[in-house]
Amino acid sequence: MNAGWCGLMAVLAGGMAAATDAPPLGYFAGAYRVAGQDAAGKPISGTASIAEHGTTAGSLSLRLCPGGSGRLQVRDRVEEPQSLTGTLNGGQVLCLFTSNADNYPVLSCRGPGPLLLVFWPDPQGDGCH
């Protein structure tokens, strides 16, 4: 293999490794609109706030209105590079995230039973206080 190909392979490999790095916690902080179904299977919609948790390093606080709170952590794992894990109202949740066209995070979460939630960014909203 010539030096040019080796250099290209190194750049591509470095780019792939960087793609698995987790974003900073502040990326997720903000107000969201939420829709889905609760753990009992009932449809819900409302607002949510996600903030960096001041006392637990590497953690996010989650407030859901109406009713609900929890904590999330970013998973920096190669096999699941864009996910968060944590709890909501005492149950375990797994959230996958992507970015919308304005580079805000969109979260799709699955919890115990039929719990399914989508968090859509609401930059002009005040979330859940």
Query: H/E order of the elements?
Result: HEEEEEEEE
Main β-sheet: number of strands, strand sense, barrel status? Answer: 8 strands, antiparallel, barrel
As a percent range, the share of strand residues is over 45%
* Residue-averaged pLDDT: 81
Low-confidence stretches: 4-20
- Please give the domain count: 1
Strand order within the widest beta sheet: 1-2-3-4-5-6-7-8
Question: What's the shape?
Answer: globular
Tell me the number of helical segments per DSSP (H or I, 4 or more residues long): 1
Which keywords apply here?
129 residues, mainly beta, Lipocalin, 49% strand
What's the topology here?
Layout (H helix, E strand, L loop, with lengths): L2 H17 L10 E8 L5 E10 L7 E6 L3 E9 L2 E9 L2 E9 L5 E6 L5 E6 L8
What's the short story on this structure?
With about 130 residues, the protein is mainly beta. Helix content is about 15%, strand content about 50%.
What does this structure look like?
The protein has 129 residues and is mainly beta. It has one domain (23-121): Lipocalin (Beta Barrel). The chain is 13% helix and 49% strand. It is built from one helix and eight strands; from the N terminus they run H-E-E-E-E-E-E-E-E. The protein has one helix at residues 3-19, and strands at 30-37, 43-52, 60-65, 69-77, 80-88, 91-99, 105-110, 116-121. An eight-stranded antiparallel beta barrel has the order 1-2-3-4-5-6-7-8.
